Amino acid sequence: MYESGENYLETILRLKMRTGQVRSIDIARELNFSKPSVSRAVSMLKEAGYITMDRAGSIELTDSGKAQAEAIYERHTVLTAFLKLTAGVSEERAEEDACRIEHIISAETFAGIRAYVERAARL
Question: Domain 3-62 belongs to what topology?
Fold first, then answer.
């Protein structure tokens, strides 16, 4: 999956956790994207089997979409914590950088970072 698709899935998950309901307009507002751009992305995610949409426009993650979104969200939160902990940067900077890193990091490196953050949290 491309970075943009991952960003959409993560955004849908975050909005669902925050508000309980997600529509295309909510995604457009959250990401500051145009409605046509979001509509195209939503169509592609539907075709790929990551989301469903009811007649009222409510978007739901499928099981595979939710699994993908949760994995992306985990990378994001762990990387944000890691950057704050090790680099001493602000929450905002850590969030922005984690958003870029989460799409390119290897599974091996991420596992090591997650283990480091978990150890640090226990201290």
Answer: Arc Repressor Mutant, subunit A (1.10.10)
